[in-house]
UniProtKB/TrEMBL annotation:
Location of the Alpha-type protein kinase domain: 1-76
Any Pfam family the entry gives: Alpha_kinase
Identification of the protein by name: Alpha-type protein kinase domain-containing protein
Position of the signal peptide: none
Coiled-coil ranges (or none): none
GO molecular function: ATP binding; protein serine/threonine kinase activity
SUPFAM superfamilies named in the record: Protein kinase-like (PK-like) (SSF56112)
Keywords: ATP-binding, Kinase, Nucleotide-binding, Serine/threonine-protein kinase, Transferase
Taxonomic source organism: Brachionus calyciflorus
Amino acid sequence: SFSHWTYQVTKEYLIVNDLQGMLVDNKHYILTDPAISSPEGYERFSTTNLALKGIKKFFQTHQCNHICKHLKLIKHAYQKLPDRDFDPLMTKILA
């Protein structure tokens, strides 16, 4: 959902995915090492910028869930997989 949101909030300028992270002090997360893809393939986002190919691959494998629905994210043309009613991992974390 976060990656999907980044694409929409940047007006399809970029997508942030492949975040690494860890829980610190039992209530905060530190997220690092993002991979940023932009349709233009700008080199400033490093060699992990897979440009339109990376964006297409993300949406081909992305399934919207209750978070996407809550954020009112628009389905991308490459999204073909059915939505999921909930994300078990996020539901467990939020519970």
